[in-house]
Structures are given as C-alpha cells and as structure tokens.
Amino acid sequence: MARLCLGLVYISQRYKASVCNLRTFIAYRWVGMHGGAMSSSDWSGNKMLREVSTHLRHSTFSRELKRDFRESIAYYLSPMQRKKLAQSGGFKKSCLLTWWLFKILFLRLSLVRRTLFVFGAGFVFLGRSHYSGALTLVGGFILVWLLLVELKDKLFAKEELAEGHAVQSALMPSRTPTIPGWSVWLYTAPANDVGGDLVDHIALGQGKHGVAIGDVSGKGLSAALYMAKLQSTLRAFVSDTFELGALAKKVNEIFCRDAQSNRFASLIYLELHEHEGDVAWFNAGHLAPMLVRGNRLESLGKGDAALGLRSDMKYEKHTAHLNQGDWLVLYSDGVTESVDESGAFLGDARFREWLRIEGHKDAPSRGIHITERLARYIGNAALSDDISLVILQRI
Q1: Is residue 289 a contact partner of residue 329, using CB atoms and an 8 Å limit?
Q2: Which DSSP letter does residue 203 get?
Q3: Which of 40, 209, 349, 353 is most buried, by the most CB atoms less than 10 A from its CB?
Q4: Cβ partners under 8 Å of residue 86, min gap 6
Q5: Is the pTM of this model over 0.85?
Q6: CA dihedral defined by 95, 101, 107, 113, rounded to 10 degrees?
Q7: Domain map of the chain by residue range?
Q8: Per-residue pLDDT tens over the stretch 335-358
Q9: Which of 301, 348, 305, 310 is nearest to 328 (CA)?
Q10: What CATH topology corresponds to 173-394?
C-alpha cells in the first residue's frame, strides 16, 4: 500500500505541470473544432449532463432524496439515538448526526478498509491544507477505490437477493387461481427483496382446494428461508388424511424442531369446495379472518397459538358458511401497520372502512382497489413490513 501511494505521488508530481482543468481542456477542443467560444447551451448538449439535469429538475427528485435520508437514519441509528436527535437543536443535531453516521460507517468497514479510509482521508486533508494536488489526488484515488470495493460487495449481495426473489416468486401461486363457484385473489409484496409472508393455493383434487396465508417473524432473507420451509411442510402433509387441527399440530411440531428458538410464525390454512359455500380452517396465531356481508363486517374469532412457540400446542378447526355475494378477507399485519410519510399507522379502523366499500364485481377488483388505496396512503415511505392479502368471494 505504501509503495502504491508513493508511486501515485511521483506520477502526480511528474505530470502535474501538464494536467489542465477538464473544462478548459474541453473548451480548447471545442474552439479548435468549431472556431468559436463554447456557449452554455453547448455544455448542456452533452447527453450525460442533460440526463443529470433532467433528473435534478424532476418533481420526484427531492422526495426520493428525503426518503433515502429517512431510511438511512432509521437503519443506522438506534431508537435512543433517534429520540435524542429529535430533542436536539439545529447545530447540535447536525454535529450528532455527522459524528454518529461517521462512526457507524467507519466501524462497519473491515480492518483493511478502515486503514485505507484513514490514509485516503488523511491525504485529502493534508493536500487541502498544504495546497498539494499530489496528496489530494492520492487520497481521492484511495477513497474512490474504497467506494468501488464497497459497491462491488453490495452489487454481489443484490444479485444473490435477486436470484432469491426469482425463486420465491416461482414458489408463489397464480394471483387469480380458478376455483369454480368462487372468485379468488392472492397478493403479497415483500418489504425487502425477499419476504417472510406466505400466500399459497393448493388444488387437492375432487373439487377441494386449500388456501394459506402466513407470516414468519422478522423480515428479509432469514424470514424468507423459514417461509419456504413452512410452505414445503404444509404442502407435504396437506394431502394426507389429517383433520385440520391435527394438521396444524403436525406443522407446528416440525417448525419447532427445525426453527431457531426465537422464531415463530402465524398461519391460517383454509379449505373449501367448488360450488359450495362451506369453508373450514385452522388459525395459528394469525389475524382473524374478516367476513364481509354487504357493508357489515364480522371478525371470525381469534386463533390459537402461533407456530414455533411450543411443540405440544393444540389447535382447533373453525367453520363458516358464505352465501352468494359474501366475501372472506385474510390479511397480514403488514397491511394495518403500514405507515405514511409522517410515520402514522394505517390502523384497523381505516382498513375496515375500506372493506365496507361496496360495488366490487369480483375479488380481483376489490383487491386492486385496496392495494391502490394502500399505495396512496404509504406514498414515498418505505414498506415497514411485508404485505399480504387473500380475498375470497362466493359467486
């Protein structure tokens, strides 16, 4: 590293006299080619500058910048630090924020990269203090190289997550599975590249179908892996002749056996028949299904314990009958716990008001209406949790 720095210093000093300002160089080239001075419109004609200029003028630029800033604060700072920051004045707030972010970013670097950062920042500071372009150049090169290495790590991880997202998408069923006598709409949106919510449809044969919605604790890759495990376990045993309570008990035993001690999951598994209005399900710690009849809502009872808490838990079978035109709505807590740009939760009351809105001809139209209203409510805020919806309409 020392040899590299000394070499760069030598090269910079050797050719320092021959290096001119980039803008001046381009201007001289323009004069030589066109025989006249370069105007401001000629500068803006450059494609890259034009794209940057267009992006800066775009109405969403400031909103995206503010959103990135909020997300960075939420990610890097602890709740105690954020609280202290909110109670501080302007100058103190700026100093605290700068110091905390610098400290966190520095400590997250590896030992080698911390050393490079110290060298780079030190050379830039010394170069600016002593008016040495050579030291500034060396320091800038080191910092840019360090940025490229960190970006490489991020892009590599991003590619891995993209592959995981593709696999997870392949495991998901059709958004509108065909069940005669029913209109069905399934939807899930992860807060990150991959998510921990489960939405599934299983054709069991002889006119019988299974629909599942679940939520593994946590977010991101670890939750997605447990979700895949839960889905494969459910699919493995659902075709056997298990009564629903016994099926839930079996799935829970396997989840307790294979999951970490701090992991749990909620799950509703529901069975229905073609051209019939009877439905049966078990509820392992998930939000209660909502039965919608006209503009009246009915919560179909609280479920049993979540999966993964204890291996000896017992689960009950629940039943209901839907008449033509009735709706059954299953959803994850990511829906009601969605937050807008000010940090306010959507809440149960507002979501239930949305469910009371009539005039939807089928499950997809109601589902799209809900997700569009949810998107408008969230605005530019980031998803705080995975969002999942299952809507069944008896037709």
Answers
A1: yes
A2: E
A3: 209
A4: none
A5: no
A6: -110
A7: 173-394
A8: 999 999 888 999 999 999 999 888
A9: 301
A10: Phosphatase 2c; domain 1 (3.60.40)
Q: For tokens 């090269």, name the residue.
A: 11
**193: helix, coil or strand?**
coil
**Contact by Cβ (8 Å): 301, 257:** no
Q: Give the whole-angstrom CA distance, residue 125 versus residue 303.
A: 62
Terminal CA-to-CA distance of the chain, rounded, Å? 72
**Two tokens, residue 48:** 């890259």
User: Residue type at 96?
Assistant: L
Strand partners, 328: 291, 392
pLDDT tens-digit profile of 110-124? 888 989 889 888 888
| Upper half-sphere CA count for residue 97 (Cβ side, 13 Å) | 17
Collapsing DSSP to helix, strand or coil, 241 comes out as: coil
- Torsion over CA: 159, 160, 162, 167 (sign): positive
Alpha-carbon gap, residue 256 to 154, rounded angstroms: 33
Going by C-beta distance under 8 Å and a sequence separation of 6 or more, which residues neighbour residue 42?
A: 30
Give the dihedral sign, CA 293/287/246/272.
positive
Sign of the four-CA dihedral 58, 383, 346, 372: positive
Reported for 21-25, long-range contacts at CB under 8 A and 24+ positions apart, including other chains, are none
